Amino acid sequence: MAPSAYRFETPQDARTFDTFSVANAVAVKTALAERGCPCEPYADVFTFRRWIAQGRAVRKGEHGIRLPVVVERVNEDKDTGEQHTLRLLRSSFVFCRCQTDEAAPRRRS
Ligand SMILES: [Zn+2]
Q1: pLDDT above 70 for 6
Q2: 88 forms bridges with which residues in the sheet?
Q3: Do 18 and 50 contact (CB within 8 A), yes or no?
Q4: 92 CA distance to ligand 1 middle (Å)
Q5: N or C end of the chain: which has fewer CB within 10 A?
């Protein structure tokens, strides 16, 4: 897992996606409809870390919407130098805007 993938330099970065999954958007839309909130996938729904990067925090006790995520990992054969890409299935949890509060700015001491 590349740590850089989880670092967002600006709030804009945190709202930008490399990939857009229609299946995930549909899953999120369904979950939001069940919840009865007006949030939109990819506009009001983000992971915990993406919310933090945008200055908002997920409230304690809120349950995220679970999404399947395929993570690619490149392994290199030490003898041949050949690279193999592994695809791993992981879960990601996303939260809608209604589940967040504006976070107090972090103080640096
Ligand atoms: Zn919502």
Answers
A1: no
A2: 71
A3: no
A4: 17
A5: C
Instruction: Please tell me the distance between residue 5's alpha carbon and the centre of ligand 1 in angstroms.
Output: 25
Residue of 105, 102, 2 whose CA lies nearest to 51: 102
Ligand 1 centroid to residue 108 C-alpha, Å: 31
Supply the pTM of this predicted model: 0.71
Neighbours of 74 (CB within 10 A): 9
Residues that place a CB less than 5 A from ion ligand 1: 37, 39, 96, 98
Question: Which band of pLDDT confidence, cut at 50, 70 and 90, is reported for residue 4?
Answer: very low
pLDDT at 1: 42
